Amino acid sequence: MKITTNQAEKIAGFKFAAGASGIRKSGRLDLALIYSEVPARCAGVFTTNKIKAAPLQLTEPRVAEGLCQAVLVNSGNANACTGAPGLRDAKRCSELAAAALQIPENYLAVSSTGVIGAPLPMDSFEKHIPLLAQNLTSDAADAVSQAIMTTDSFAKLASCRGEVAKAPYRLLGVAKGAGMIHPNMATMLGFVLTDAQVEPALLQEALRRAVDNSFNIITVDGDTSTNDMVLLLANGAAGNREICSGTAEGERFVEELTGVLLELAKMIVRDGEGATKLARIRILGAASDEDAKKAAVSVATSSLVKTAFFGEDANWGRIIAAVGYSGAEVDSEKVEIRFDDVPVVCQGISTGQELEEKATEVLKQAEFTVTVDLALGDASADYYTSDLTYEYVKINADYRT
Amino acid sequence: MKITTNQAEKIAGFKFAAGASGIRKSGRLDLALIYSEVPARCAGVFTTNKIKAAPLQLTEPRVAEGLCQAVLVNSGNANACTGAPGLRDAKRCSELAAAALQIPENYLAVSSTGVIGAPLPMDSFEKHIPLLAQNLTSDAADAVSQAIMTTDSFAKLASCRGEVAKAPYRLLGVAKGAGMIHPNMATMLGFVLTDAQVEPALLQEALRRAVDNSFNIITVDGDTSTNDMVLLLANGAAGNREICSGTAEGERFVEELTGVLLELAKMIVRDGEGATKLARIRILGAASDEDAKKAAVSVATSSLVKTAFFGEDANWGRIIAAVGYSGAEVDSEKVEIRFDDVPVVCQGISTGQELEEKATEVLKQAEFTVTVDLALGDASADYYTSDLTYEYVKINADYRT
């Protein structure tokens, strides 16, 4: 399985358009449309935040019906905490797009990301949404990936090819997110398209499993948002034999999907607001899966650990402290910690100055792995995190000004 | 009840000494001794971190016995994750102090704070601990408050007077902590002394209740440490009638103790690493006490909320999002949010630009209250937090260098 990044390939039966509606300053792309020539089977995963933005209130039940033909997304405005008028606006967006595309309105998914609490610029949208429908082309996936950016510093696109009984198919995903990133679908949007023919039951299962092993194991700042969604659309244009759950082909499809989403997820962490490092936190030897996860999350979200990464300081004391307060079972005399392959803690105590200096060299890299072996059992977990920098504070103190 | 801060009053039957052992650079005070002329009844609260530093392993069981006559504290070195040698060092510190003071060793509490994983400088301690015992005086509580500082920018001392049947008594507390501050006793030390005669059962109950409403409702960065402890010593030198649990006097004692600890706790948040703001997060109208607490913690620990405070941005969207992912029951159409007395959200939506500008003025103050009324029930909770600043990142990226 080979994942290609930031290369906008065509994908059979899908078209794209993006435009600048004026929400974002200086004519940036801020409105995008993804369209499938035929109604696609779809699956979705949505924020766990109890405050759900208007577009999610509208889209979630539609996606649950299983068919989707177009996705309308805007950046710059989340249409969240906007009450009944916000829901009317989301509905109007979907009406405008459905009318322009001449498709049933309930085949339309809408999605928004940006500032909370402000009304959508409907006057502008009345004009710009129909324009998108006129400008659909098969080679504009990259424009969509740009239009959904908010504080992202680069667009995020990943793809992969698969095959069923010699019939080739493709997977293409775009995502956005750079802050408010945390498991359970923190402010991030992801749209994944495939021209494969996929059994509806597998589609939802595949998306859930892939998200759990990609977007749900990354953190930038621990905040989850009101607007997150990941949609998977499968339009069958590749003409392959249907891929079904419980088969080798089905498992391969899940792996490919996970591969695409994990690549997008890692791009999100690399682009974490102000981030200069991508660290994989790997817990080994935990007493249970739950413990492994708890310990990984605790280390990955510790502000002290994240600032130490920024300072390129192999401060394992903060890591062991974060494991200690995670709630996971720990025996302080068994813990081992490595930075890449350099051991800094063995049986709970320091391996000495020389190895710590070597570990500091590891931290000078842009990407590295911190392994904590609890030596209590067989469970393990991975988690990806960024460092916490001056720039993070600057971006988030200034965001609306 | 009047709480006095940063004024080192004498307290009957207690003596203090502080010295510079050389752990900290430039001759800063880093070693301190608190001594009671008679064995004092004592109570303690210790870190919930599963990785417990050596001094805690030694002190916790001793405090559980109920009597304590002296506390030896050092800053600059936590003696944590130091294995069997670390425990031997902690034991040796206690032997040295007990011998110098000529008291039973099990009446000695030891406490350390600072860098994790390095051995204590025992050569220096062999010389300096006996010196402390020679220099005890009744008016050096402020020197103790200075000697326990690590990244603290100011010393923290608070006191209060009480009375039982016309017999006056005093409460005097010192604390340290500026980072790794979070509920459940994050890297902070607190030592509270009273000359009152207090029933042993009340002593532990009072400390638990007071800590729950002071040190356990503050957060700076969400990290809890391996070394936290709060000790309460009551030596009875005031000669009052014993204060007992379940009496009006007992309740008053708990209130006074809570007042002293809350004042120390707020000083810790004000001194939060890099902090420029002290914000009280007040949740009202929650469906349950647990929900109120969850929502308060979630808002108080959100990096996005804390950076918005730093940016003096009345970004209520981040607050409502943090409530939404807290796990507390929320009805987005009922939520009200105020900055001091300025309403910015009513029934889940913005109250408009003008009030938001007024709220921005509130955020320009050094201290303010953010109230979130969930309008679902009667439960409430308070939480104190700081802003997240460039300086926080700087301090923690550079701490060991």
From TrEMBL, chains A, B:
Chain residues that bind substrate: 150, 176, 187, 273, 396, 401
Signal peptide: none
Pathway in which the depicted protein is active: Amino-acid biosynthesis; L-arginine biosynthesis; L-ornithine and N-acetyl-L-glutamate from L-glutamate and N(2)-acetyl-L-ornithine (cyclic): step 1/1; Amino-acid biosynthesis; L-arginine biosynthesis; N(2)-acetyl-L-ornithine from L-glutamate: step 1/4
Top-rank taxon, per record: Bacteria
Molecular function in Gene Ontology: L-glutamate N-acetyltransferase activity; L-glutamate N-acetyltransferase activity, acting on acetyl-L-ornithine as donor
Gene Ontology, cellular component aspect: cytoplasm
Transmembrane region(s): none
EC annotation from Swiss-Prot or TrEMBL: 2.3.1.35, 2.3.1.1
InterPro entries in the record: Arg_biosynth_ArgJ (IPR002813), ArgJ-like_dom_sf (IPR016117), ArgJ_beta_C (IPR042195)
Enzyme class, broadest EC rank: transferase
Any one biological process term the GO annotation gives: L-arginine biosynthetic process
Subcellular location(s) per record: Cytoplasm
Catalyzed reaction equations: L-glutamate + acetyl-CoA = N-acetyl-L-glutamate + CoA + H(+); N(2)-acetyl-L-ornithine + L-glutamate = N-acetyl-L-glutamate + L-ornithine
Subunit structure: Heterotetramer of two alpha and two beta chains.
Described purpose of this protein according to its UniProt entry: Catalyzes two activities which are involved in the cyclic version of arginine biosynthesis: the synthesis of N-acetylglutamate from glutamate and acetyl-CoA as the acetyl donor, and of ornithine by transacetylation between N(2)-acetylornithine and glutamate.
Protein name (record): Arginine biosynthesis bifunctional protein ArgJ
Organism: Syntrophotalea acetylenivorans
Lineage of source species: Bacteria, Pseudomonadati, Thermodesulfobacteriota, Desulfuromonadia, Desulfuromonadales
Chain's gene name: argJ
